[in-house]
Amino acid sequence: MIRIYSQRNFSRFIRERSIVLIALILVTVFASCKKINFEGSPGTLAVFNALDDQINLYTNFSGSHPFNYSTASLIRNKEFQPNNYRYKIDRAPLPLALFASTDTLPKDEPVLKLDLDLKAGDTYSLFVYGQKDAAKHLLLKDLIPGVKEKDSLVWVRFINLSGFPNISFNIAGNDPGALVSDLAYEQNSGFLQLPADHTVFNYVFEVRDKSTGSLLFSLTTERINDYTNLYNGWFNRPNTLVFAGIPGASGTNAPKLFMMANR
C-alpha cells in the first residue's frame, strides 16, 4: 500500500508541474504575439501640444512610472520643433504617458496615458488639446504627398482644435470658405495643394467663424518662393495649420493658427 500511495503522489506531482509548465509556455507565446517589434521598418510619431493654459508636457515611452524627467523629451506648448517632437516608432502597441511639466512627483498622474496601435513604416501625428484635467487627443495617420521633380508646390492641412464648433478657411482676397468651407471641431481637411512658383511670394491664410463670417485670425507664410534659403519651411513641403484656443480668450489662450511641419 505504501508503494502504490507514493506512485499516486508522484503522478499527481508530475501532472501539476506539467500544467504549470504549459501555462508558462502559453503566457510567453501570447506575450510575444501581443508585442510587435518593427525591425528594419520603423515608423514615426509627431506630437503637437495644443493644451490650454500654456501647459508643457514630458513624454514617457517606458510604460512605467516614476521615470527620469531630466532625460525625457519636453514638448512645449503650441509650438513644433521637427527635430525634437518627432519620434521613431519601433514597436506596437506603443505606450505613451504625457506628464505636465509641473507634475513631476512620483504620486502625480499623467495628463494623458495611451497605448497606441501603430503600424510599421507609417507616419502619424498626435494632437493633444483641451484642458489639462480633461485632456483630449486625436491621432491621424499621415498620407504625406510625394514631391516630384521640378515641382513648385506647398501642401497645407487645417485642423480645428479650438472651441469654435465650425470654422472656414480662405486665402486673403478670396471668398470666405474658398479653401475649406466648413471644418467642424476636431476635424481636419487633409492636405491641400497650392502653387509655389516664382509668382507666389507668400500666402495669407484666414480663418473665420462659419456662422458669422467674422475673421478670427490670419497667418502669413514666410518666403515661399525663396529658393536660395538653406531651409525653407514651405517650398515643396507639407504643413499642418492647427487652430487652437478658447473663444473670447486673450493671451496664451487666444484662438490662433499654429504651424506644424510634416516633413
From TrEMBL:
It comes from the Bacteria. This is DUF4397 domain-containing protein. The lineage of its organism: Bacteria, Pseudomonadati, Bacteroidota, Chitinophagia, Chitinophagales.
